[in-house]
Amino acid sequence: MKQMKKSEIHFSIALDDQRVPEAISWRATDAGEDIHFAKAINIALWDRNDTGTMKIDLWTKDMPVDEMKYFYIDTLGAMAQSLEAATNDKLMAEKMRSLCQELMKHVEEQQKRNAAQNPQ
Q1: Residue 93 CB: number of other CB atoms within 10 A?
Q2: Spans in the chain with pLDDT lower than 70
Q3: 94 φ, ψ to 5°?
Q4: Which of 53, 94, 96, 105 is most buried as measured by Cβ atoms within 10 A of its Cβ?
Q5: Distance CA 115, CA 120 (A)
């Protein structure tokens, strides 16, 4: 019997006294032994028994709100790319990309309003 290659990804979450993430680190067996650090993670798994999505969303308390918004826009864009590659559904992928563009415009307008209201 042929032995299958195995690859693992490990996450480590440091929590404060209130169980709020202070630090997120990860390493992957295929990426060497280096430890990488992140401010947020968003993991979605399709449960094959329950036929539904299971999610893990974590972010550190030093993650700025604007960065969080960019993180979700980038995630949605990456999902559009993955969806198109996996299913060849160009229409659905383009609608997701279009939403990303709308969201970027929204975030940029919010930042301009905030800057005008709070001049340095």
Answers
A1: 20
A2: none
A3: -65, -35
A4: 96
A5: 8
